[in-house]
Design a protein that fits this description.
By secondary structure, the chain is an alpha+beta fold. The protein has 3 helices and 2 strands; from the N terminus they run βαβαα.
Length: about 70
């Protein structure tokens, strides 16, 4: 599965602009991991959500949707 795989070597190969959404209180995958991912993907932006844990996509869905919509316009 994906959880067992080290995908770090793939990250520098990503050339598309990339937005990363992360909860600052994520105790499953800490924010430090997001910072490493962001540093390894050129043209990436890390969007941090204070007070949010691992389910940022559920807890901040509306805010994430607004960010994505603003990027598309």
């Amino acid at each position: 599965g994906i959880i067992e795989r080290d995908l770090a070597p793939v990250l520098p190969k990503i050339s598309a602009p990339t937005d990363i959404f992360w909860g600052e209180q994520d105790d499953t995958t800490p924010i430090e991991r997001a910072q490493v991912i962001q540093a390894r993907i050129a043209h990436s932006t890390l969007h941090r959500f204070p007070g949010v844990r691992h389910r940022v996509h559920r807890e901040k869905a509306a805010e994430i949707a607004r960010i994505i919509a603003s990027l598309a316009s």
